[in-house]
Design a protein that fits this description.
The chain has 8 helices and 12 strands. It is an alpha+beta fold. Helix 2 packs across helix 7 and helix 6 runs antiparallel to helix 7. The longest helix is centred in the middle third of the chain and has 19 residues.
Length: 276
């Protein structure tokens, strides 16, 4: 009942603000290549597709076609992810706005949280990656980036510290090497992740809208995946051809299951998903 009510409130929130709810394919031919995200492979006769890890590329195609404010709630999939906060199938909320930045999306998120947590105490705070790592891990990944050390310290030191801080925290200004599909401003990516009591709920970018740069990043990610022995995904040429047409935009992915966990006090994702 609580999960259904949360989803109803989310839809009312976006509908009342002029967003259009969209539905894009769950089976896709070309996932965005990212080093440690694996999509389940589907073979139908001689046709190979993948279950999406995110609707991001398909939603950006809609932005390029002229839509300005869109959102989607739907299933996503990632192989090898199972635990208290992870599940191979999960539900994602994503929304995108043209002519905005990740700072504007933070305003959206704060307004959404106000509708879902009307008795919430205190404002969300913002901590940069450099500040967090210097204070809790003793080094600055913006000065000398080390992916393995960055990931280890995130899990072992940063997220426990955010849990101690409590409430809502924006972890902002990621190293440029961790930009993924975000724009880069100097030494950092225009990207933030939002945590509640140390639980990562959302990931937001000021979107990269440069097709050539996006292709270069995808090729680098494909090479990294190959070196790790991971599946090689084809490039989505249609997406790369239309990226420049977006102009400027920002978007966010928010995990519905984790959001329901936070609002219900559940300890595991299995408690808030039917049939798990």
């Amino acid at each position: 009942m609580l999960r259904a009510e949360i989803v109803r409130r989310i839809r009312r929130f976006f509908d009342s603000r002029g967003f259009v709810e969209v539905e894009t394919p769950v089976r896709i031919a070309a996932p965005a290549p990212e080093e440690h995200i694996d999509c389940p492979r589907v073979v139908d006769g001689g046709n190979v597709t993948y279950l999406r890890a995110s609707p991001e590329l398909q939603m950006k195609k809609l932005l390029a076609a002229g839509m300005d404010r869109i959102y989607q709630i739907g299933p996503c999939f990632r192989e090898g992810e199972k635990g208290l906060r992870h599940n191979p199938e999960f539900t994602m909320l994503e929304w995108y706005r043209r002519y905005t930045s990740c700072r504007d999306i933070a305003d959206d998120l704060e307004a959404l949280l106000a509708t879902l947590m009307p008795r919430r105490k205190g404002e969300s705070r913002t901590i940069t990656v450099a500040e967090a790592y210097l204070k809790y891990a003793g080094w600055n990944p913006l000065d000398k980036f080390d992916q393995d050390r960055f990931d280890f310290d995130m899990a072992a030191k940063i997220e426990p510290a955010l849990r101690e801080i409590g409430g809502g925290v924006y972890l902002s200004e990621y190293p440029r090497q961790a930009a993924s599909l975000a724009t880069v401003d100097g030494d950092h990516a225009e990207r933030w992740e939002f945590y509640w009591d140390g639980i990562e709920l959302a990931n937001c970018f000021t979107e990269l809208c440069d097709g050539e740069e996006q292709k270069r990043r995808f090729e680098a990610a494909k090479a990294a995946r190959k070196a790790l022995g991971e599946a090689d995904y084809p490039l989505d040429g249609e997406f790369l051809d239309c990226v420049d047409k977006i102009g400027s935009a920002a978007g966010i992915a928010l995990g519905i299951d984790r959001l329901v966990m936070v609002l219900s006090g559940a300890e595991s994702i299995g408690e808030v998903r039917a049939g798990e």
